[in-house]
Structure formats: C-alpha cells, structure tokens
Amino acid sequence: MEAVWNAVKAAIKERVPGHSYRMWIEPIKSHEGEAGSLVLACPNFFSKKRVQDNYGSIIKSELENTLGRACEVSIIVENGNGRKPSESGTIQLALPDVNIRPYSGRQLRRDFIFDHFVVGGNNDFAYSASLSLASRRQSLPNPLFLLSGTGMGKSHLTQAIGHHILTQSPKERIFYMTAEDFSSEMVQAFRNDTIDKFKGKYRNECDVLLLEDLHSLSGKERTQVELSMTLDTLFEENKKIIFSSCYRPSEIPKLNDKLRSRLAASLISNIDPPNFRTRVRILKKKAAIRGFKIPEKVVHYLASELTEDVRQLESGLIGVTAKASLLGAPVDLALAESVVKNIVRQRNNITIDAIKKLVCKYYGISVNEIISRSRKQSLVRPRQIAMYLARMYTDSPLQAIGRSFNRYHATALHSINAIDRGVRENGAIQKQVDFFRQKLDSGRT
Questions:
Q1: CA 299 – CA 282 distance, rounded (Å)
Q2: Domains 104-270 and 347-442 share a fold
Q3: String of b and e for 374-403 (b: at least 16 CB within 10 Å)?
Q4: Which secondary-structure segment (H or E) carries 75?
Q5: Which terminal CB of the chain, N or C, has fewer other CB atoms within 10 Å?
Q6: What are phi and psi of 371, to 5 degrees?
Q7: In this structure, are residues 314 and 162 in contact, taking their beta carbons and an 8 Å threshold?
Q8: What is the CATH T-level fold of the domain 347-442, as seen in this structure?
Q9: Does residue 427 carry a pLDDT above 90?
C-alpha cells in the first residue's frame, strides 16, 4: 500500500497548491488496513481534521483512479513512533474555563485556539503558516508577520500558536504582549535601573515571542533599538517570533531602518475580510461553541448584512440571542433585522468631514479649530478622537486622514494609537468614544 499511497500523493500534488501539499499531505504516513483498506496516519488532531474536511474527497478519488476500484480509507492520528496519542499519553487535554497564563505577558484567551478558527480563502495561508510554526513540522526561516485590519482574526491566530505550543510543550517559555507593553516595560526598567535584567529576560529566557500591534512603536526610537537587538538574538538562536499589525512594515512611519528591515524580512501573511460562505461558517461555528440555536435563514441574513469583520459578526450573533432571551421571543428574521439595523454602519454617509462636524458639535468647537495647529488640550483630545473615528469608520489611508486634519500621517497614527490605548485603559475616554460610535452607528449625527 505504500507504493499506492506514493502514487496518490503524486497525483494530489498536481491538484493542490504547493504550500498546502507540503503542509497537509506530505506528512501523512500510510498503512495497510483490514481487507486491503488504506489507513492514513496524520501527526496530530488538527492535521487529521484539516485533511478530512478539505482533502478527503480528493484522496478517495485519486485512490480509486490509481487502484481502478473502490477502496476504504480511514484517517487516524499517530505519533512518529507509530503509536496513537492515547497510547503515548500526549493527547491534547480540554482547556479549563480560565484564560491561560504564558511564561510572561498577557493571558491567552482560552477560546482563541486553532480548532475555533474558521478557515477560508481569505485566511488560508495565514492559518497554514501559523499552524506549521506552532506544530514545528516545518521551521519557518523568518519570523511570521500576521497582517490585517482590526477584527479579522490575527490576535486569534497569534494566541492559538501560543496555546498549541503550550499544549505540546508545556515547558516552553512563551512571551505574549503588545509592542506597547514591551515599550512600557522597557521604560520602567530604565527608571528602576533594571535594564540589564530586562535585556536578559527577553534575550535569554524567551523561546517564543508573540508581539502584537507593531505599529504602536512609531516614533519610539529607544524601544525600536532595543527590540532590534532582542530580535537579532532570538533569530540567531532560532527562536519562534510572531508579529501582528494593521500595517505593513513599510507603512509604519518613524521606524528606524534596522527594525524596518528585520520586520520586512518576515513571512508576511495577509488576512482579508471573509466572503459570504466563510461568514456563514463563522456564525455557525461561534453559535455551536456557545450552544446557540440559530435558524439557517437568520444565519444567512446576518452573514449577508454584517460584512465588515469577524467582530461585527460576533456582535450580531450575541445581539440576536441576547435580545431573544431578554424578550422571551423566538430568534427570527424580524428580531435579527431589529438588531442588525443598530449595528450596520451608515458607511455612505460617514465621511471624515461628517465625523469632524459631529465631534466639533458635541465639544463646542469649530471645524477650523480642530484642524488648526493649536495644541490646547481642549482641542487635542477632540482632534485625536476624530482621527480615531475616521480610521475606524472610513477606508481612508493614514495620509488622507492626516491631511484632512492638517497633520502628517505619523501624527495621525500617534493620535489613533493614543485613543486606542485610552479606550482600553481610561474609562472617560472609552465613554466619549462609545458615545460617538452610537451616534455614527445609528445614523443620528
């Protein structure tokens, strides 16, 4: 049967993309089963599920073409030593109902695992690269750089890598944080005269670095220099490095050449918005995980109306189920429509100028003041919030946003990052931003 499987693999190699073949088909081992059947052994549960869902029909078709007859195929999980996981004691345990604390940094969300990630044409390469790096079946020559807009799944994949590595190798020292966290920790180390300890921690105690929101390093020269040296050390020691950002390295302003070069050498993997079919699968997956029962027609309605990102889909799903529960009403199209109208943004009516007018109206300032060169605090905060909302609600690039406020794009990025940080850490800023978002989402500007 090994010769037969080799022939089948050769045929499959002609039908699927090269990276998919290397990732999923090449590692499979074959055994002869009972009554001449074929047993295919995958290296782990993730691989088995992926092969069954995406390549099962191709395998069966090519096997029948090779043999000239029908043949039973079964797919199992088997370790390199020929034993099933249950025999070797390495079966993945269910995650507890708490977030997972890595060796250093932020907690990993317990639901951000590979099995909960819905793969589609918009993210297939990013998923494959992430799983390959986590499974260590294929050592990536360069760091992995996950690139997407907000709410597309780059944080999910980043944390899924951490979860998978911890499951397979609990002793691995995983550092998960944002670039802002790294910068703040470095500043504190300088203030407390513990910078040597800080350097030793990242250069000598880290096996896997998961670093998100790289764009927040814009203009932070001292942090950039330290991070560059840390990355050089980790890279030389063949450590795993995963970055994420909303911007390509070439698009991040005020980044020193050495760090930009190091980031640009990464395997940059883009995650695009999901298409309709993928949005349907995402809704069904999230509903199943939460135990929600959603009629098919409601799922299709949500998928057709909520097209921006995964977070918006999740918001719609939770909104529908929560409203049905509170009202004691069935989940039907009428209820879904009432929820969606409060979520879907009136994009055609939301422009940078409309946002400026809205913000100016509620802060009692003029449009001329908000775009002036004045740095009065009474103008700086409204200006920053307006830039943040412009980035969130329009497709305008940073350069256009900056020009609209009489600023360079680097200043626009600084303002957006400042409000993004404020929303997470400052209740007052969060309330102000939420107020404007409600106005924009409802169309009452």
A1: 10
A2: no
A3: eeeeebebbbbbbbbbbbbbbebebeebbb
A4: strand 73-77
A5: C
A6: -100, 5
A7: no
A8: Chromosomal Replication Initiator Protein Dnaa; Chain: A; (1.10.1750)
A9: no
Query: Binning pLDDT at 50, 70 and 90, where does residue 93 land?
Result: very low
Residue 86: is its pLDDT beyond 50?
A: no
Beta bridge partners of 75: 40
CB within 8 A of 344, min separation 6: which ones? 305, 306, 441
pLDDT (0 to 100) of residue 87: 38
Task: Give the domain ranges of the chain.
Answer: 2-88, 104-270, 276-340, 347-442
pLDDT for the residue 147:
94
The top-level CATH class assigned to 2-88 is alpha beta
Torsions phi, psi for 294 (to 5 deg): -115, 125
How many alpha carbons fall within 13 Å on the CB side of residue 414? 13
The pairing of strands 104-105 and 73-77 is unpaired
| 376: region left, alpha or beta (phi > 0 left; psi from -120 to 50 alpha) | beta
Report pLDDT for 349: 60
Rounded Cα gap, residues 48 and 212, in angstroms = 29
Q: Which pLDDT score, from 0 to 100, does residue 422 have?
A: 87
Pull the structure tokens for residue 385. 């919030």
Least confident range from 57-66, 133-142, 146-155, 384-393: namely 133-142
pLDDT at 347 over 80: no
Distance CA 445, CA 194 (A): 50
Query: CATH says 276-340 is which class?
Result: mainly alpha
Q: Is the dihedral of CA 58, 63, 64, 68 positive or negative?
A: positive
Residue 443's pLDDT is 65
- Percent above pLDDT 90 for the chain: 43
Q: Above 80 in pLDDT, residue 307?
A: yes
Stronger pLDDT, 437 or 269, i.e. the higher one: 269
**Straight-line distance from the first to the last Cα atom of the chain, in angstroms, rounded to the nearest whole number:** 69
Label each residue of 132-176 as H, E or C.
Answer: HHHHCCCCCCCCEEEECCCCCCHHHHHHHHHHHHHHHCCCCCEEE
- Selection from 280, 285, 244 nearest residue 111 by Cα: 285
Q: Please name every residue paired with 232 in a beta bridge, in sequence order, or none if there are none.
A: none
User: Could you say which of 3.30.70.260, 3.20.20.190, 3.40.640.10, 3.40.50.300 is the CATH number of the domain covering 104-270?
Assistant: 3.40.50.300
This prediction has a pTM of 0.64
